[in-house]
Amino acid sequence: MDGWIVPPPKEPTKTKEAFEQERREKVRWLIEEGYLRSERIVQALLTVPREEFIPTPYRDYAYLEVPLPLPGEQATISCPHSYPLFYEPLGLDEGHRLLEVGTGSGYGAAVAREIVGPTGLVVTMEIDPVTYAFAKNNLTRLGYTDVLVVLGDGGQGYPECAPYDRICVTAACREAPPPLLAQLKPGGRLVGPVIEEGIQYLTLFEKRDEGLIRQRLDAVLYVNLRGRYGTGP
C-alpha cells in the first residue's frame, strides 16, 4: 500500500448506530465530491455495511479514505470512493451480469449484487486462497449466498458464466487481459487500472461493432494483478 498511511490496528469501539451514521455521511460526501450519481449505486452503498468486510483490528476505520489490509498476500480493501469510481463509468445497473476480478474482502461484490438485483448475476474471482476464504465467509455471513465466488486466476476470466455485460478489474495490469475482452458482450464495458509509463490509469474499455474503444479516466493506485496476465508473481 505504497503511498498510503494505514492507521494502527486497535480494538473496535464503534456501535452499529455509529457505523450507520458514518455510512450515510460517506455517501453524502461521495455525492458532493462528484463520485456518485446513480441512485441504484447510492442505495447499494447505503445498504451494505462496509465495516462487516474489514478485519477486526481495522473495523473502526471502515469509512476512512484509506485502503486497509486484508488476510492474504498484498490484499487490501480499497478506499470507499473506489467503488463508485469503478461502477459509475461501467454504468452498472439492474439485470447486468458482472465479472469482478479481485474479490478482496467481498465488499465490492456485495455492493454490485445490490446494484444488479435479483435479475442480475455477480461472479467474483480471487487468486489468493486466504483472501478468497475471508471474502467467501463475509459474503455468506451477510446473506450474499447467490454471489458466485471463484478461487482462480481472474485474468483468465470465468467462461462458464460468460458473456458478461460488465467486467471490473480491481488490480493493475499492463493491458486488459485478452480472455476478459473475449468474455465481454458486444456493447459491454470493462474498467480496470492499466499501467502506462509507470503510472496507473483507471481505464474504460467498450466493446463496439467498430472495435474496442478505450478511455483514460483517473490516475489511481492499486495492487498489481497476479496470475498469467499479471504484473506480479
Architecture overview:
This protein is an alpha/beta fold and 233 residues long. It has one domain (16-219): Rossmann fold. It is built from 6 helices and 9 strands; from the N terminus they run ααββαβαβαββαβββ. It has helices spanning 16-32, 39-47, 82-90, 107-116, 129-141, 178-182, and strands at 68-69, 76-77, 97-101, 121-126, 148-151, 164-169, 184-196, 199-208, 211-219. The chain has a 7-stranded mixed beta sheet with strand order 5-4-3-6-7-8-9. It has a two-stranded antiparallel sheet with strand order 1-2. The two termini are 17 Å apart. The model has no long low-confidence stretch (mean pLDDT 95).
Would you summarize the structure shown here?
This protein is an alpha/beta fold and 233 residues long. The protein is built from six helices and nine strands, in the order H-H-E-E-H-E-H-E-H-E-E-H-E-E-E.
Low-confidence segments: none
- Structural classification: alpha/beta
Distance between the termini: 17 Å
**What is the name of the CATH class?**
Alpha Beta
- What oligomeric arrangement do these chains adopt? single chain
Mean of residue pLDDT?
Answer: 95
Q: How many E-type strands?
A: 9
Radius of gyration: 16 Å
The strands making up the biggest β-sheet line up spatially as 5-4-3-6-7-8-9
Helicity range of the residues?
25-40%
